[in-house]
């Protein structure tokens, strides 16, 4: 509910709009609240700076008039031309007198319009008086008569030339206190240029026929040119006019701005003719996607012509139709306005939306998450005004999404369960995304989670958005959030079918056969089974493999089984190329036909196992060859999988690669994937796997050796690892090196993670020396796990004592053994105590004693 004081504000605004001088009593009557309550709220609004008062007895109230930025109506000012507009603003306000601006760009890009807005901005900013004029001159109009131009610009004295019968002031004089805008400035001849430069440099000029008395003026300059700045005159100009603003051609502007420009032209015509238009989107997009020599000016004329013709033919009709609306259309009403306030209202709504609805905990609840998005979108939708241009743009986006969805539906056989309002919601989300500029997105973990939960759906949405991006030329920034929102809205519950498909299935062909087979199979199966790549006729194996690599890289799950059907070429070469990309199972079948793809597709759909599909494929036809590999890798391998994350597994892989024979492949796997792989395959699958190293115990085949990395820190675990490695031909030396490196890594790693101040690399050495001394003195050999434990204890103790020196502890009564231990310890710790300025007291020593005595 709206806060009461804002209700008061609304009433005040309404009363003021009726041109009333509003008193407290007026508001009390209008709201039905008591005078006292109204007074209290008004004072709160006054403090908030939302209202102001004037007069005494009675006091009148009025809403504070917000300063309107004149550039706000310049389409692109808060979008692609934001930087340029900021520069214009700086040129106006730069003390003491701003500086001149040179606007470049093709004909009709908005140079004159921008110049006029700069003038308005200067008035708004009070850097010139309200009476400061905006005087313009197109130098091209006088290009053949420089004398005349000079007289028009600088004025003349009586008798300066034949017919000069009185002193006449020039445009420069008229612009005194304001702006002069010189369009097509490159058409000035050299003499006039000189005069202009003197004026720019000294603020003085001589009218024609005046040699003695220079006239001093205080004016600002804006120049414009359609020429490139390489031209000599313009280079001299640039030295004096440091601020150059380039306006891009219409076709270079982003699509949403081209749409705004085009539609606002129609709105203007609707106003002129006082008629509504039913506009076909095909017509709009034809206009939007064209290049015009005269840019926005030409476009304006084109729209005017179109409207005029249709008006002539359909004068009697209340709504005029423009183009055929088979591909959708939008209604332009004469009161359709481009409401800047509304626009501003939505500016950062996309970020708010993502933050409000992409809640990590809810992501796995498809329905709930979608409901949240829909609720937020509905709230935003309610703020839309039917007569606003924004609505038309959203409608256009809706049509574009519809078209792209139709393409994707044909290709992938999905997007079949769209809810009624989904398209409208997606269009609004897209609108908010496009308008949300310079927003900070900080939900990376959310994206990762969505990718993990819905990998195939995310891929499909990615393809849709890639196509949309091409059509709309939208920015990359934040695109992943758009994908997430689209996924919930457009795929929704359909994800269950999409995610069920367990393999990556690819069709590859020279020419367009792959994509047409893809269309048939995916549409018949009503699911995304196959991705297809049509390759040029002369595509090399390298190009093909590059395409496949790119595709695999786009997938969230990298190690998925791949089924690849292709038309011609060497089967074994294709197999080899693709196998390089992934360790996962691979089935390659050649001589692709539609019925073969359909057969494979159906088997995949029925969740047949990889091996069964591969076996069945062998019987396709005499012409077909099949090669497949089911197994974790063809090489002798060790799988490393740490529950605490890929980083740790990668580190262990690095160490193993350093220490072990080169021909042992170390494969890292996500812990969940490992569990799944173990449960969904038989032992044969792991025939080349020597062992699996994990951080958590997993149940598996008895014949498969699974070792806990932490057990390897123990004597018995270390022995087991060594034995296994040596059975497979690893030298004892390599095994010892590996054990030592692992131990060091875990010690360093564990301690490093816990130490806040000390450098673990240095401390660990000192700690190792301490432990070695104990081992020597007591003739001990500590096992890996104990070593880790005690090293950790000592390192953390050193830091703890540094940061929080302990109070002297109560002396305890010591037996002989302890006495000896304390004595030895004092000398062992001596160096460290000195270095870190700490005192290892009896209490600490008693802990150490306990730790070591237990060994
Ligand atoms: N950013 C914009 N937003 C809205 N309308 C614009 C914008 N830029 C230009 N226009 C409109 O486009 C038309 C052409 O603009 P303008 O005349 O300023 O172009 P120009 O670059 O000065 O052209 P020329 O070089 O031919 O003089 C005008 O009707 C103007 O109102």
Written description of the protein model:
With 855 residues, this protein is of the alpha/beta class. The chain has seven domains: 60 residues, Arc Repressor Mutant, subunit A (Orthogonal Bundle); 179 residues, Rossmann fold (3-Layer(aba) Sandwich); 79 residues, Helicase, Ruva Protein, domain 3; 157 residues, no CATH class; 129 residues, Rossmann fold (3-Layer(aba) Sandwich), CATH 3.40.50; 106 residues, 3-Layer(aba) Sandwich (Rossmann fold), CATH 3.40.50; 99 residues. Helices cover 53% and strands 11% of the residues. It has 34 helices and 22 strands. It has a five-stranded parallel β-sheet with strand order 5-6-9-4-10. It has a five-stranded mixed β-sheet with strand order 15-14-16-17-18, sandwiched between helices. The chain has a four-stranded parallel β-sheet with strand order 20-19-21-22, with helices on one face. Strand 19, helix 27 and strand 20 form a beta-alpha-beta unit. The structure holds adenosine-5'-triphosphate (ATP). The site of adenosine-5'-triphosphate has 17 residues, from helix 5 and helix 12.
